[in-house]
């Protein structure tokens, strides 16, 4: 995934506009090579989920958020798919958005009035791209589909025969076919065979475990390092020897220690000096980052970004739940290790020195330790109602939770650029 090194904070507008705090989820849209093509942006007002009937309010909130945050910051320079209403196009509210980066996404049940079709043509002439969501081939929506640059077909709602018919109809259209709600590797395989070009859903976080798969020797060493990092204090000499056994890990670790996320005033050139200068707590966090980066070498980069965000969010929000930040950081990161290593979580947790309740959290069981991981997974899906329910049930202040998330997004961006 293309990520920039710019250290400008996604959290800055949150700090400056606490009274208007907003939250945003970015759902990646990947291509056939597992590269991120763009992001669909979903917004929450931090108080209640947007009702589908509040279309005008939802659109105005969307526009407000994109202006506050900036699309460049939210989508890292990739196309930003922004959900719109017909009114937001015909009344030209969307003109506040940058045309080059913006894909205006309309629901397929929008009435294709002459006024809306005219507005779509004008916006395309001005440089905007159009997407039609939840396309099912209905005649009423085909005039909009003919203008669209992207046509999305929902895998959860449209069966395989209907999808193939839709794709045949789209063959004469310049629109790119996007498979929505692709959640499993089987669905991804079907979508590829059927001819879809882009894919939206979290199938890439659930690669099929390799049969009789054994973790490579160097990665077993990494798991051994993770075990040693849980000791307090760490055995500096033993840890340095373990890290030094792997040149790739040593390189990644030193790059991270010398990067802006550590804010070091002097460069370090050895594992021992790095640990002594940054301190054990920071060293643990950076070492786990480096190990995750190495684990993810053969998987989509988006998995790594999500792992970084999860780990940092769980660490930052831990004090709000009376949890141990270092353990929460590890839980957040490890939650995506099975996708990186292509093994089952049940097999992975047996190899890690985790407390039983931390293991339960990773296995999806309800524990105090699972609260923050559950929240951020719901947030990734844009399930605002579930996020709100988790906060209410556990007495978590929504504004502080969302502030932690915004900080985690910023931190993950810098970490991914360096890793």
- Mean pLDDT, rounded to whole units? 84
Report, as a whole number of angstroms, the end-to-end distance: 12 Å
Q: What is CATH's topology name of the largest domain?
A: Hypothetical protein af1432
Q: Could you name the ranges where pLDDT drops below 50 across 5 or more consecutive residues? A: 1-21, 47-53
- Overall number of domains: 2
Question: Helix-strand pattern, N to C?
Answer: HEEHHEHEHEHEHEHEHHHHHHHHHHHHH
Amount of beta strand: 5-15%
Estimate percent helicity. 40-55%
Q: In the CATH hierarchy, what is the superfamily of the largest domain?
A: Hypothetical protein af1432
Backbone shape: elongated
Describe the main β-sheet briefly.
Answer: 8 strands, mixed, barrel
Task: Walk me through the structure.
- With 419 residues, the protein is an alpha/beta fold.
- The protein folds into two domains: 12-205, TIM Barrel; 217-418, Hypothetical protein af1432.
- It contains 21 helices and eight strands.
- It has helices at 12-16, 55-69, 71-75, 86-90, 114-125, 139-145, 160-170, 185-194, 217-229, 236-244, 247-257, 271-278, 280-295, 301-321, 325-334, 337-341, 345-349, 356-362, 371-380, 384-394, 398-418; strands at residues 23-31, 36-44, 80-83, 102-107, 129-133, 150-154, 176-180, 198-200.
- It has an eight-stranded mixed beta barrel, surrounded by four helices.
- Helix 9 (217-229) packs antiparallel against helix 10 (236-244) and helix 19 packs antiparallel against helix 20.
- It is elongated.
